[in-house]
Every structure is written in C-alpha cells, then in structure tokens.
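<amino_acid_chain>
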Amino acid sequence: MDFSAEELRLLRELVESAHGDLREEIYKAEDSDFKGNLKQREQILESLLEKVRASSA
C-alpha cells in the first residue's frame, strides 16, 4: 500500500494513541486471561507502529 506523508503521520498518531489507551487498559485489567489477550494486541500494535515509523523515515 502506498500512503502519502500526511496519511502516514495520521496513522502513526492514531496507532500511538491506541497504544497508550491499551497500556492503561492492561494496567487496570484484573482478569489474567483478559490481560493476556490485551498484551497480545499490544504486541501487534507495537509491530504496526514500527512499520509505520519505518515508512515515515
């Protein structure tokens, strides 16, 4: 996929925001299974963020 610089910037901001929200949710989660699922999702977001940052460079 090809994104403009502006689209990449916005995508990066959205993923960073979602990552921050997810970290807070992980911190507050009490159920270990739920927390594990959130941590898996966090890994996917971190991977996506790395790719977006690499594309922006």
Remarks:
- The chain has one domain: 5-56.
- The mean pLDDT is 94.
- Residues 5-56 form one domain.
